[in-house]
Predict the structure.
Amino acid sequence: DAMVIQNPRYQVTQFGKPVTLSCSQTLNHNVMYWYQQKSSQAPKLLFHYYDKDFNNEADTPDNFQSRRPNTSFCFLDIRSPGLGDAAMYLCATSRDRGTQYFGPGTRLLVL
Amino acid sequence: RKEVEQDPGPFNVPEGATVAFNCTYSNSASQSFFWYRQDCRKEPKLLMSVYSSGNEDGRFTAQLNRASQYISLLIRDSKLSDSATYLCVVIRYGGSQGNLIFGKGTKLSVKP
């Protein structure tokens, strides 16, 4: 089945230790998104790739970076995680402006 | 004022009840509207799109009122499995992209 896959599902990291979250998709969608969702809050868009074009939200901290080496994969890099970065990180994909489909998320814990 | 606002609930209803959720959006440039469902500790999943003419999918009915900038979701004959958080989502298009703007969600708990 075509799907959006995120690895790992749970990630524990230490304060200040860089971490990378992975997303892959078999839907052949040209747009990939990264969202941060904290408990009892709405998902918050961090950035997205429209094809190869990177689009950063104005309020996304510099601590968050992303890479998209090819159509299928997209990575979220957190350069120096703080305690406040503990959250669920959701990857989503879409065909152009179409419906977004979400992966199962990676839950990040910062110790 | 947040761009998409929902009553956070929780809505606690018995099985078989009819329940309605409301959502308002502030940006009149918003162009597409959806309801997503999110189970605890899971990802959001598309429940249904919302059209001006109203649309129905089984026990679920969605309505859009562009003049009032208001979206609703009606669930009839509630099931235990309907317990979840329902997210109102608006897409605002700018340039070549469309960004999803999520409401904080309305929590529904259906009791036996």
